[in-house]
Amino acid sequence: MSADLRPAEATVVHTRILRCTLAPDDCYAYWRNVDPGVPPSERAPMAFRERWFGVKSEARVRTLVPDMVERFDAYPSALALLRALGPIPSRLRPLLCHVHVQLADPVYRRFTGELLPRRRREGYRTIDRDTVVRWVDELEPGRWGAATRIKFASNLLAAAHEVGLVGSTRDPRPLVVPFVPEVVLGYVLYLLREVRFDGTLVDNPYLRSLGVEGDAPSVALARVPGVRLAELGGARELTFLQPSLLAYGLQNLKEAA
Description:
The chain is mostly helical. The protein contains 12 helices and 4 strands; from the N terminus they run ααααααβααβαααββα. A two-stranded antiparallel sheet has the order 1-2. A two-stranded antiparallel ribbon has the order 3-4. A hairpin with a 2-residue loop joins β3 (227-232) and β4 (235-240). α2 packs across α3, α5 (93-104) crosses α6 and α7 crosses α8. The longest helix is centred in the middle third of the chain and has 18 residues, at 146-163.
């Protein structure tokens, strides 16, 4: 049996979100400027010299670039598409960044794809930092001190606010299901088809974070361009009408742009 050579979602817990949250403008700058042929070790000096991220300090650029490598270079077909698209509307950038932060960060993935959807299902309308601090401690009991847990909670909530999953930067923060264009749901599906991840194409933390769970997939995914959803005996099956994420995105995301 041949090995599955597809890239995989990250599973090792790390603390990169303490240094960089969603950062959609910085992600966009990275897509527009990066040359995958340049070794990652050489990119930070180049990015600072060429001002990819504007007036950010060299120290900040050296923090950003390795995180961008984990978010995007780890998924080459996605990076190839994002580079090929050219200008991407600001309304779409946070959503695209969100799914890549989920892929690269298991803590953010569980926060947005498990905790927030569970609270919505249980009837909670808000969330606060203290709740997230306790949740972080339960993830890795005793691993982090109080200051680190608070920073985790603050940055997770900040990232969720940037993508529109919480409606305020102050407690109590309303839980929100953002408007997600069907073309972005298609991006998620085509990307996941090319990635090893925990879940199925119709039931996973990536879609749950965007409000697509329970009976919602039947409605939401049926409208996604480039995808056909069939249901038989309660089981859902997706048929992909494009051969790859790159082909899908060049046809559909380019039109949305």
